[in-house]
Design a protein that fits this description.
CATH class of the largest domain: Mainly Beta
CATH topology of the largest domain: Glucose Permease (Domain IIA)
Radius of gyration: 33 Å
Shape: elongated
CATH architecture of the largest domain: Distorted Sandwich
Structural class: alpha+beta
Number of helices: 6
Helix content: 10-25%
Length: 479
């Protein structure tokens, strides 16, 4: 056999081998593309996302079509063809994966109206099967459009809300929706079914530093982008907070700040006394307060407390709620912060009692607050006990009013032995003096929630002596 003939034979053999491989790849691909919806698409509103994933592992995607048929009208979300490596290539298509993420009803061309609707997705690959048309896959999904917003009705507003104070707002949402509550400025207070089963309620706090004209709104959202909002005109009673100078010394910084930074791996010393103090007093304070806000989201949706809250027995007030503090270092103001709580002092290592029934939500070290206990009283209401020398409870423990939970101390940013006590409502610090008042608790909270059984004489808890009205000097800074 001549070399020329041999070369022709080898060439034909290679061509036949390639055509065999090509046919095996193209004809052998009998698997259609896979179509999947990555998120539920059954109840669909204005903001419901559509996330489609189409995958073909063999000859690759040829084309994809995604349409919505709504009241017999067809709306194209995408019609896309994909390139091929060539008709006689083994690889087929260049694309094996397609993902579409869109919000269909954000498109103004797709009308927002009720009626029957269907999502239709088709996809083909570059297989030679089906007379070279390829393998095809089709997904049909019926869905229900949701474009009717909920209705919000006010049942009973509080007569007055005090700056830094708390209140109950009663309202109704029709139909039931997953998200509802009261918004005051940037603060949001989620709602819950009322104990008397008459609509919903929200425990709210008017932020101590919010302007008197801050909007108060009841909001509701069905989770599909249909929302309702009702402006409520409440009477806001202004409060005026004190401004107090706080002297900072190198000795105080050396005594408090290094130990705080040692237990705060997120922050590093700047090797400068004043810089380290500002790092703790400002940056760490913000971080700690965010932690407290996050903990409030874990509050149980039930009433755990009973009766008025208690001030630490026998204690004197050394600093009160919302004192505006100017921190002086070498005669100059170097920082300003608001003291959101009460500093209560008795004697060193004095037993600290639970201010009401609740459950331990946090028990550990918390930056500027030092050794800290946070109790959950339900529906977003927390109490905080800071600067403790010792902690006698653990997370998850149930406690009762008056139960010893730790001892006062000087941990954290404290200049002397005392208890820093705060009340927090859904992340907003509130003035404890209201909650220490049995008459206020009964008339402004319990009666508003329709809980007369909790105010019977047989249920009453003996009240300690009223909080001291005397404000003594604060010897050194505390949070």
């Amino acid at each position: 056999m001549s070399k020329k003939v041999l070369l022709i034979v080898i060439s034909f053999g290679l061509i036949a081998t390639y055509l065999g491989l090509l046919g095996n790849a193209r004809w052998g691909d009998s698997t259609p593309p896979e179509i999947s919806l990555e998120q539920p698409f059954e109840l669909v509103g204005p903001t419901t996302p559509l996330v489609v994933r189409i995958h073909d592992t063999e000859t690759g995607l040829r084309d994809v079509s995604i349409r919505i048929i709504h009241n017999l009208e067809t709306f194209v979300l995408t019609d896309q063809d994909f390139p091929s490596e060539g008709w006689l290539t083994i690889g087929g298509g260049t694309e094996h994966e397609f993902t579409l993420t869109t919000i269909p009803y954000a498109n103004p061309e797709l009308p927002r109206r009720q009626g029957q609707a269907q999502l239709i997705i088709t996809a083909r690959d570059y297989s030679w099967r089906n007379l070279f048309e390829g393998n095809s896959q089709r997904l049909e999904q019926d869905f229900t459009p949701q474009f009717t917003p909920p209705r919000v009705e006010l049942i009973s507003p509080p007569a007055t809300i005090v700056q830094g104070g708390s209140a109950v707002v009663r309202y109704r949402v029709i139909p039931d929706v997953p998200t509802h509550g009261v918004k005051i400025g940037e603060a949001f207070f989620p709602g819950f079914p009322a104990p008397d089963k008459a609509g919903m309620f929200a425990l709210v706090a008017f932020p101590y530093n919010a302007p008197l004209n801050t909007p108060i709104q009841i909001i509701a959202d069905d989770g599909f982008g249909n929302s309702a909002m009702l402006d409520v005109d409440f009477r806001i009673k202004p409060q005026f907070w004190r401004t107090r100078p706080i002297q900072i010394t190198d000795a105080f910084i050396r005594k408090t700040v290094p130990s705080i930074l040692a237990q705060t791996p997120e922050l590093s010393s700047k090797n400068d006394l004043l810089a380290d103090f500002l790092l703790v007093n400002d940056t760490l304070r913000t971080m700690n307060n965010q932690t407290i806000s996050d903990l409030a989201k874990r509050s149980r949706p039930e009433l755990l407390w009973k009766g008025a809250f208690r001030q630490l027995s026998g204690s004197q007030v050394e600093a009160s709620f919302a004192d505006h503090r100017q921190y002086l270092y070498n005669g100059k103001v170097v920082d300003v912060q608001d003291h959101l709580g009460f500093d209560l002092a008795v004697t060193k290592h004095y037993p600290v009692e639970a201010s009401n029934n609740g459950q331990v939500l946090f028990a550990g070290y918390l930056g500027i607050y030092g050794n800290t206990i946070i109790l959950d009283h339900g529906y977003g209401l927390l109490s905080l006990y800071a600067h403790l020398s010792s902690i006698d409870v653990k997370v998850g423990d149930a406690v009762t009013i008056g139960q010893p939970i730790g001892k006062s101390g000087t941990t954290g940013l404290a200049g002397g032995d005392h208890l820093h006590f705060s009340l927090i409502l859904h992340g907003e610090q509130v003035n404890p003096t209201e909650w220490w008042d049995p008459f206020w608790v009964k008339t402004r909270i319990k009666d508003q929630l329709g809980l007369p059984s909790l105010t019977k004489a047989s249920d009453a808890t003996p009240e300690p002596e009223p909080p001291s009205k005397e404000f003594g000097p604060t010897a050194a800074p505390t949070p």
